[in-house]
């Protein structure tokens, strides 16, 4: 973090000027937790949306994707506890009603309102409860509502994920804030996750889109918990321009600083998602270098991160590097078995595709007993590289997801 980018204590989506939020309990969740959030700018601004690549997207994704094509937005309503996915024409009608109700309540065109849902797939939304929740959230909109909004979007998460940043642009400053949720069905592109980022910066449409794509590519598209791609994944970035800075364009000297701040914010939120993964006990960073190209490096990283055998061995605190080699071999990447080296937190386990005999087994055991560690895989044939953040797989993950 540079001296021009500093964290804001208790930062959230309401850290930037002109944004209000609320989070309420409307009864979608049986145990009475907050389950509906509303985030709203006092005026419409530019917006960029990035969405799941799942070919069976939920109704909210379809609706919001259409609104994002206009590039203008003012608010987003999010419910948790129900994904409104695979719910047919009624699901789209319900998502549309949510948008229209918010638009009527805050006084803007429906096309400036976005909608997200997260939770169980295939269950119709309880619209009577949702209507009451939207009305209550509109009444409770506040510049202090960011924390409640962060709570209202959670599903199996164990804590809210939020952050705010201050960016100094000479004598001016702008702010960014964000909230996210995600704990299971995490794998690009994107993950089972929702994220709303706000900024009061004035950023051109082209620059905002470019910054969002790059930040997502380096953060949410580089995490994996269980290899599943959700029907509802959404990242929304709102910029209302109330900082009144000279408009940032791709050619602006300060655009790189804005990009760095946005990438930092999304990167921190993405890491929080991984660290709060369902039932996890280990966070593992996979670094691949020496690949034929970056795409091959990514193939290797994802093959290792998705291997159930590898993930189970991490949970068992067994440095079973043979499972890593097997995953590397079936990844589809170009590989020379006599050039592969593998390191655990800098301790070499594999040299030239075979066990490094001079490395005491106890050193590797010490590494895999840590709650967080790094595995470096060097393919030794090129300059391609890729980084991915992932987790182990535990019995608790199974208990969470077996449907009880």
UniProtKB/TrEMBL annotation:
The enzyme's E.C. designation: 2.3.1.35, 2.3.1.1
Keyword terms, alphabetized: Acyltransferase, Amino-acid biosynthesis, Arginine biosynthesis, Autocatalytic cleavage, Cytoplasm, Multifunctional enzyme, Transferase
Residues annotated as site: Involved in the stabilization of negative charge on the oxyanion by the formation of the oxyanion hole: 118-119
Keyword Lipid metabolism: no
Principal subcellular localisation of the protein: cytoplasm
GO cellular component: cytoplasm
Domain of life the protein comes from: Bacteria
GO biological process terms held by the UniProt record: L-arginine biosynthetic process; ornithine biosynthetic process
Listed GO MF terms: L-glutamate N-acetyltransferase activity; L-glutamate N-acetyltransferase activity, acting on acetyl-L-ornithine as donor
Residues under site feature: Cleavage: 191-192
Catalytic reactions of this protein: N(2)-acetyl-L-ornithine + L-glutamate = N-acetyl-L-glutamate + L-ornithine; L-glutamate + acetyl-CoA = N-acetyl-L-glutamate + CoA + H(+)
Protein family (similarity comment): Belongs to the ArgJ family.
Quaternary structure annotation from Swiss-Prot or TrEMBL: Heterotetramer of two alpha and two beta chains.
Name recorded for this polypeptide: Arginine biosynthesis bifunctional protein ArgJ
Organism (species): Methylacidimicrobium tartarophylax
Gene responsible for this protein: argJ
